[in-house]
Amino acid sequence: MKISFESKGDFDVVRSWLKRVTENKPTTALNQIAREGERSLANNTPRDTGETASGWVSEVTTKGNTTEIVWKNNAHPESSVNVAKLIETGHGTRTGGYVAPKPYIKRAMEPVWGNTDNAVKELIK
Predict the structure, then answer these.
(1) Does 82 map to a domain?
(2) Does residue 12 lie within any of the structural domains?
(3) Of residues 50, 52, 101, the one with CA closest to residue 74
């Protein structure tokens, strides 16, 4: 079986598009999304003291062709557990009690995730 391809013209349009897409624009969009996620998490984190709510930070990292956003909570560095996660999932106490979960992360992040496609598409047009 023989397969052949024939092409006429050049790839200037494709090269131009690829150049625009691979410039720093997606990272810029992801930095904006990262900050939006921090704000949304801070606004939706249940508050007793507000310390956990104010502890949200994000990192945008690139390795090879992959860029990702990571959200972390740096509140309570003295604790050996992730307090933001304990609020989300509930936990036992030292005295045998139980603190019920207060789910907030998914609710906080759904609008951020929903805007991600559009934010990146707008910047690479």
Answers:
(1) yes
(2) no
(3) 52
- What is the span of the domain harbouring residue 70? 17-123
Question: Cβ distance 90 to 103 under 8 Å?
Answer: no
Residue 118 lies in a domain: yes
Q: Provide the CA 16 distance to its chain's centre, in angstroms.
A: 28
Q: What is the pTM of this model?
A: 0.72
116 assigned to some structural domain: yes
- Taking only the tens place, the pLDDT of each residue in 1-35 is 777 777 677 788 878 877 776 665 667 788 889 99
Amino acid at position 49, single letter: T
User: Can you tell me the distance from the alpha carbon of 75 to that of 83, in angstroms, rounded to the nearest whole number?
Assistant: 8
- Per residue in 98-108, pLDDT tens? 999 999 999 99
Q: What is the 3-state secondary structure (H, E, C) of the chain?
A: CCCCCCCCCCCHHHHHHHHHHHCCHHHHHHHHHHHHHHHHHHHHCCCCCCCCHHHEEEEEEEECCEEEEEEEECCCCCCCCCHHHHHHHCEECCCCCEECCCCCHHHHHHHHHHHHHHHHHHHCC
The C-alpha angle with vertex 72 and arms to 71 and 75, in degrees rounded to 5, equals 145
- The total number of structural domains in the chain stands at 1
